[in-house]
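Protocol step 4 of 6: structure prediction from sequence.
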Amino acid sequence: MPDSLANFSIWFIIVIVVFSLFDAVMKVIAMWKSARNNHLAWFICIAIFNTIGILPIVYLVLHGKKEIPEAE
């Protein structure tokens, strides 16, 4: 095993895995909601740019809850 790989502590690897999982979950949720809301530009930006979950969080905050109109 190379020295550079052996020097990483287990905590650093755990942090990287947690951030990766967080980013993946936020990206999937934001892409699903943007597709449901017909926001093609947001969908493409979230799919292309890797922002460690920041862009998906921005989308979810701005377009989080959409009120459903009541049927009369």
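Step 5 (inspection) to follow. The two ends are 68 Å apart (CA to CA).
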